[in-house]
Write a structure and sequence with these properties.
Layout lengths: L1 H14 L1 H29 L11 E8 L5 E3 L6 H8 L4 E8 L3 E5 L5 E6 L6 E4 L3 H4 L4 E3 L10 E5 H8 L8 E4 L3 E9 L12 E4 H6 L20 E6 L6 H16 L6 E7 H4 L11 H28 L5 H9 L4 H38 L14 H27 L3 H6 L10 H34 L9 E5 L8 H9 L4 E7 L9 E3 L1 E3 L10 E5 L4 H5 L3 E4 L11 E4 H6 L5 H4 L3 E4 L2 E9 L14 E4 L7 E6 L4 H15 L7 E3 H6 L3 H35 L1 H9 L4 H35 L10 H27 L3 H5 L3
Parallel strand pairs: 6-11, 8-10, 18-23, 20-22
Antiparallel strand pairs: 1-2, 1-12, 1-13, 3-6, 3-12, 4-5, 4-9, 7-10, 8-11, 9-10, 14-24, 14-25, 15-24, 16-18, 17-21, 19-22, 20-23, 21-22
């Protein structure tokens, strides 16, 4: 019986090659997109799941109550010791992310023989041996205890190969940022793709404690008053010990060590496995994007199935006699149904093979083409049981979702009516059913188009709207040791290079995600303000280089340390002053230094457009000016930058030169949104294409059903345009009906999405009209071939009776 089903299935598919091709094409595209969405969701919901105790690993975070509520995944450095000694945690550790990039191999005479620049991102962590009791690593050489000693480092297999080749790394010296000599004492496995702990260098925390003048050392290691977003505390709880009990212990630590400031802080226990999805802690992939991707995948698979149903029911009339003969010779309804299900299964199997192949071949290039590092796995995990269960479930779902309705329609034909050619439209699946499916497809398509247009508009707005100063033509170069050079002389030599207009030394540019905040006390007030001041350290050339505008007062004077402040209009507002002039000449205390306010600057966006403008203070602190921003002219850019690099190398021969353009750095703030825009565009185009296949099936069905009507109209003198109007009017009604559903839903969804942005575009009527026009245009173009073909049929042929 099964062999007979398959033989007849193969004959039917070969006989109807166009029908088979269109169905396989639509389903394979839908399945390929479904698989890509699965891999995205699977990849991000299993981050760090390979750690054996992942359900008992918690990260201690910080909640601030200065001015409203804000969050940081960082903690004060002493937190880990308090958690280790004063809670029930089995293990606790500190992990300070290091962004040092310069590594050098040292020979026996202490001279560098090879230099490496690591990055982007944090590949180095300062931690303790307890880190490896909490997280699982395979030790190739050495043991965690080796990190008890200062000036030791454990490296990954990948870094061992990169730095030492086939030589034994143990006992060799790596010099960090030309300051610290670190002895290699162990090798662990390289981190997998799906981890939020991508470290490949583990430097002992004792190194920082023994080298207090190094960048992460100093008195800050012992203070509870500051929180660095890259200083983490992890804890492993005992089995059966609840997070609520652990939180009570953290509250006790908070009250004990923060003292009178305890109300301004709270340290929260958060499951480490949840951090990847938590927006408040800048999780890279929030749950909302998981839901959006899942919805997109379902949309595309559903669209492909609806397309199949439309195409299959459009073929039902042609197969009426086949069904009639089967039933006349004793075929049962169930047998006819399973015959069609077997055909659907074969088509779906072909589509699944093609879709899986497309998705697999696309996977290695997906991250690169979409600029979404770590968005998808770079290769298929063939031993992932969940993948094969998903594929099996997808196959069964598509077969029965796409095949059941057409199968029931065919199986329901009466033999006598089928053999006489008396099958009606309703018996062949009903035109209204097909119309409903097409409307659903058009609703999904228009939703995707509306989302694409709004996201595209918001991205264009963010990329092109001025942040409040000139960002083009400004390049940043790193200054490794700002305290060891004469910054004035360096700047003068820069200005001698043709093509350089200005230059300033600073810690941060005006717009960056790297920020330093602190308490502030104004004039004679007895208490600190309840909000935090965002600090931008820069010299007296900061304003003119970036083009910031003074609205009151004057610029700060030349100095090496804090001699005065510039604040923005937002700071004036938060201080409760009505006029910027009121702030000029008053004193302000930041970082424990009281100095006068010299001037007030016009507001600018110091983060992305999703965040509000913050109160900002600019002041000089020479020793931490790790950046130099250079204002360039538009001529001979390449020669200018070569001269800058040559000058830089003369000052810092033991370091590696780095440069970046400010406008490109700001654009990276919107990289994730840009990526999702590209993804929605791709899925929209695929959905439109699949929808067009379904529309083609509907028009083909209408052409068969209206053949005699068209013949009669042509005999009575109807023109080609009037015949085409029959089909065009039908399509226009379906598209407009879909628009009435899609427009309010699309507006609601996009309005909710735009609320994440403080500065955003309105959703205008033009967006909705443009979406429906795109859909209508594509639909009419798709239907034109079958419509014209039906309109050109000789009426004598369509009207003759058998």
């Amino acid at each position: 019986m099964l062999q007979n089903y398959l033989k007849i299935t193969w004959r039917n598919l070969r006989r109807n090659r166009v029908y088979t091709f269109l169905n396989v094409l639509g389903l394979s595209l839908g399945i390929a997109c479904g698989l890509m969405v699965f891999w995205f969701i699977r990849f991000h919901t299993t981050h760090d799941a390979f750690h054996a105790n992942i359900d008992r690993i918690y990260q201690v975070t910080t909640e601030f109550h200065f001015d409203g509520t804000s969050y940081s995944k960082g903690v004060p450095p002493p937190t880990w010791k308090a958690v280790r000694d004063e809670t029930s945690a089995l293990s606790a550790t500190i992990c300070i992310e290091g962004y040092e990039k310069l590594m050098a191999l040292i020979d026996a005479n202490g001279r560098p023989v090879k230099k490496f620049k690591e990055g982007p991102g944090a590949k180095l962590a300062y931690t303790t041996p307890e880190y490896f009791k909490i997280f699982d690593y395979q030790w190739q050489v050495g043991a965690p205890s080796s990190l008890k000693k200062p000036n030791t480092v454990v490296i990954s297999e990948g870094m061992a190969k990169k730095y030492f080749g086939d030589d034994d790394p143990i006992g060799r010296i790596i010099k960090l940022e030309n300051q610290l000599n670190l002895e290699v004492t162990g090798i662990v496995n390289s981190p997998p793709e799906n981890t939020d702990l991508p470290y490949e260098f583990f430097v002992s925390f004792a190194t920082l404690e023994n080298n207090r003048d190094f960048s992460y050392g100093g008195p800050d290691l012992d203070t509870w008053s500051g929180v660095n977003s890259g200083t983490y505390c992890f804890a492993l709880l005992p089995e059966g010990f609840s997070a609520a009990r652990f939180q009570v212990q953290l509250d006790s630590i908070n009250n004990k060590y923060h003292g009178k400031d305890a109300k301004a802080y709270a340290h929260l226990a958060v499951k480490f496995s949840e951090m990847h999805h938590m927006e408040r802690y800048d999780g890279p992939v929030p749950y909302k994007w998981i839901y959006i991707m899942a919805t997109l995948g379902l949309f595309l698979i559903a669209t492909a199935c609806f397309n199949f149903i439309n195409m299959a029911t459009a073929q039902a009339m042609r197969r009426a006699k086949e069904v009639g003969i089967r039933k006349a010779v004793g075929g049962k309804r169930g047998q006819v149904f399973f015959q069609f299900i077997s055909e659907t299964g074969v088509i779906t199997l072909f589509a699944l093979i093609i879709g899986f192949t497309l998705a697999t071949l696309s996977l290695p290039y997906l991250n690169e083409s979409l600029n979404l590092g770590g968005g998808w796995p770079s290769k298929v995990s063939w031993n992932d049981t969940t993948l094969w269960l998903f594929i099996l479930g997808l196959f069964v779902t598509v077969v029965f979702l796409a095949g059941s309705y057409p199968g029931l329609i065919l199986a329901g034909f009466r033999p006598v009516a089928a053999l006489k050619g008396g099958i009606s439209q309703q018996q062949a699946g009903g035109l209204n059913i097909r119309r409903s499916l097409i409307v659903v497809q058009f609703v999904l398509i228009q939703l995707l188009i509306i989302c694409t247009l709004v996201i595209n508009g918001q991205v264009d707005f963010m990329m092109n709207k001025s942040v409040g100063y000139e960002t083009k033509g400004i390049v940043e170069i790193n200054i490794p040791t700002p305290d060891k050079i004469n910054q004035t002389t360096f700047r003068e030599r820069l200005l001698e290079i043709p093509g350089i207009k200005n230059a300033t030394f600073c810690l941060f540019t005006p717009t960056t995600n790297s920020n330093n905040t602190s308490n502030v006390r104004f004039d004679t007030r007895q208490k600190d303000e309840v909000w935090q001041m965002n600090n931008k350290n820069g010299d007296e050339h900061y304003l003119e280089t970036f083009g910031l505008t003074l609205v009151a007062g004057k610029n700060i004077p030349h100095s090496d340390t804090i001699q005065g402040y510039l604040i923005n209009e937002k700071a004036v507002e938060r201080l409760g002053l009505k006029d910027p002039e009121e702030a000029v000449g008053k004193t302000m205390n930041v970082w424990g230094v009281t100095a006068p306010i010299y001037g007030v600057l016009k507001n600018w966006n110091n983060r992305s457009f999703s965040a509000e403008i913050e109160p900002i203070a600019i002041f000089t602190f020479k020793n931490i000016h790790y950046n130099c921003a250079i204002k360039l002219s538009s001529t001979n850019l390449q020669q200018t930058m070569k001269a800058v690099e040559k000058l830089w190398n003369g000052y810092f021969p033991d370091h590696l030169y780095e440069q970046s353009f400010l406008d490109e750095s700001i654009a990276r703030n919107y990289e994730f949104v840009n990526t999702m825009l590209r993804l929605v565009r791709i899925f929209s185009m695929i959905a439109i294409f699949i929808g067009c296949l379904g529309l083609y099936g509907l028009i083909k069905f209408m052409a068969v059903q209206k053949a005699k009507e068209i013949g009669v109209r042509k005999v009575l003198g109807a023109t080609l345009a009037q015949i085409l109007n029959l089909f065009g009017r039908e399509i226009a009604v379906l598209v407009l009906l879909a628009f009435l559903i899609a427009a309010p839903v699309g507006w609601y969804l996009m309005d909710a999405w735009l609320k994440d942005y403080t500065y955003r575009i309105p959703i205008g009527l033009g967006t909705m009209i443009f979406a429906v026009l795109i859909t209508l245009g594509v639909a009419l173009l798709t239907s034109s071939y079958e419509s014209i073909k039906a309109a050109l049929v000789n009426p004598a042929k369509s009207l003759k009776s058998e």
